[in-house]
């Protein structure tokens, strides 16, 4: 039988803030997603109550806002003050009309109600620069008797919001980005912006734009160059990546649908492991070249599977749908493996944001005036977040004699993808079974196990949570045998499944 070896001494801490999500002024994420004053569940502020409840149940603590591509041309000051006088603008990143009825102060009210305590704000380093970033920082965090801080007070928000994490722009290496830059231009601007922002507020941490995707041919030299320019003034390098079923290895190639079979698709999370390790290597090379004592942290602040859209785009409408998709079980298993790749690198990836929280490529789906429900990927993230606390750590593991498979694109892929977490009172095994047949493996824990339980997501590969059948794929309790009073345990995973097995000690 396969055996999962646990290296109990080799572990690192992981905290709830590590797995976050993302709200962007894109598609129907904000308008009719989280904000819909006419909705039957609306709060007095116009927030959708049904969505707030789903977000609270998810347990997410970190949220990035307000973009994304949107930020590279937005004016944050359009979004504050009296709603009746806020300007309506063209959102050129996503071809929609932006009413600015939901803005910076509404975001802080919303996260309070959603029980999110760790916002990440992105400043505009596309069409704007240092001054704009400083003004926004002063409005948000300013504690002195100064103009922008006083404007926040005048707008009814006496206390500074105390935002710690600031993204220095978004995807400025991407040709699609409004005001994209060369690494030399961006590195200089990001370094000077971070320096000035830290002079204003030394408590903040800054996130440098890394490559938007490893599929760009500027990857990873972009990361090297911008880190060389800004290493001393930044705390994180950002990573982004989305995986489509039929995606080629390079942005210039045709899609690969014909050869991208299910075993290949389910193995594509290996690209996350590889990308994280490459970015670590680049960052450590810069650390050595600069004789620095600082180890650069990683913020994987956009990641997800991607799927074709169920709704047609309506350019230049007030909430132009962009994407809006269902995920099936196959997508959910890949999503689970992507989350495990992030978790197993939690010694360096200290922040991550699944993109996006509501609508487009979402955890939560909404119909205007109608219901809100969850894609099955929601339950994967929820099951990880439920086990992250102030005492959680990831324990290193190795599967011995487990089944493996190879495809044209990936060799020696483990049929079971897993990570083991110690919560302080339980070992929790998170595992994806990438095979149709069930898989069994044994584990010897360092502690005697008292009791335990198991939950999983199973179904047909093409199953989805539709508006007609919103709970086809959820986390279900399932049978497992716990050897109470013993440290030796066996785990059996159903075919094609996401699993969470808890062993209390
Ligand atoms: O998440 C959607 C978009 O994808 C973001 O705006 C952008 O940063 C990325 O390309």
Write a structural description.
Keywords: Carbohydrate metabolism, Glycosidase, Hydrolase. The protein is an alpha/beta fold. The protein has two domains: 2-8 and 393-504, Immunoglobulin-like, CATH 2.60.40; 15-385, Glycosidases (TIM Barrel, Alpha-Beta Barrel), CATH 3.20.20. Helices cover 24% and strands 26% of the residues. The chain is built from ten helices and 23 strands. α5 (183-200) links the parallel β7 (165-167) and β8. It is globular. The structure holds alpha-L-arabinofuranose. Alpha-L-arabinofuranose (AHR) is lined by residues 24, 26, 67-69, 170-171, 302, 355-356.
Topology:
Layout: E1 2-13, E2 19-22, H1 49-58, E3 62-65, E4 89-91, E5 96-98, H2 104-114, E6 118-122, H3 130-141, H4 147-154, E7 165-167, H5 183-200, E8 205-208, H6 221-230, E9 236-244, H7 262-266, H8 270-289, E10 297-306, H9 329-344, E11 349-354, E12 364-366, E13 372-374, H10 376-385, E14 393-400, E15 404-405, E16 413-414, E17 416-422, E18 426-433, E19 439-449, E20 451-457, E21 476-478, E22 486-493, E23 497-504
Parallel strand pairs: 1-19, 2-3, 2-11, 3-6, 6-7, 7-8, 8-9, 9-10, 10-11
Antiparallel strand pairs: 1-14, 4-5, 12-13, 14-17, 15-16, 17-18, 18-23, 19-22, 20-21, 20-23
The structure holds alpha-L-arabinofuranose (AHR).
